[in-house]
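Bug report (template v2)

What were you trying to do?
Predict the complex of my protein with zinc ion.

What happened?
Run completed; filing so the output is reviewed.

Input:
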Amino acid sequence: MGPMNEGALVLFSGGQDSTACLAWALHRFDRVETVGFDYGQKHAVELEARRHVRARMAREFPAWAGRLGDDHMLDMRGFGAVADSALTRDREIEMTERGLPSTFVPGRNLVFLAYAAALADRRGLKALVGGMCETDFSGYPDCRRATLDAMQTALNLGMEQDFSVETPLMWLTKAQTWALAKGLGGEPLVAITVEDTHTCYLGERGTLHPWGHGCGVCPACELRARGFEQWVAEGRPELAP
Ligand code: ZN
């Protein structure tokens, strides 16, 4: 791990995972900025969640408020137009003939990381922090650590840099991601995660379930609810960052 003062750029969507990553970065780095990507999602609600989460984290965690720097929003609608998936077009969420869910946007994390690195270069930030996870995720190939190691090498060669691509959730289960939130910010951070983050693929806020807002039936809601219920069944443990 590099010196703490080098700063981090968090890929921040306003979802549960990237909120845990933001807290992890605020715990670890003196200077943290966030970047969001507008790639033509059908759900402006996701972009709205980012603002609420950032504001509430700054308000409820004074120690983090001073570390939380600028938020950047990058227009990726050109990429969204290229990618063909259920998130950017009206298409059912299903398994495709390639054995990947139709929510998979080919190469999305690679594109995001290239843009994030260009931004981090300009902002003097060294750590790129993302919520990619291999454990109980849908098998997206650009979430694998091996992919991200290769991407880190490519970015550092291509930009003459010494970035590190940090993935604090890589080997955690969804239940452990809740435990990590508690370990980083106690029940107040769990409350922010439940009430303000957005994960639902269908973009539904709807009623507030114990695990948060969402339709409750899409794969993202199911994964989130199952992780939460498992964490509660274990007695709401906390995981030290
Ligand atoms: Zn949902």
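What did the reviewer find?
The pocket of zinc ion is lined by residues 200-202, 204, 214-215, 218, 220-221 (CB under 6 Å). The domain at 7-197 is CATH 3.40.50.620 (Rossmann fold).
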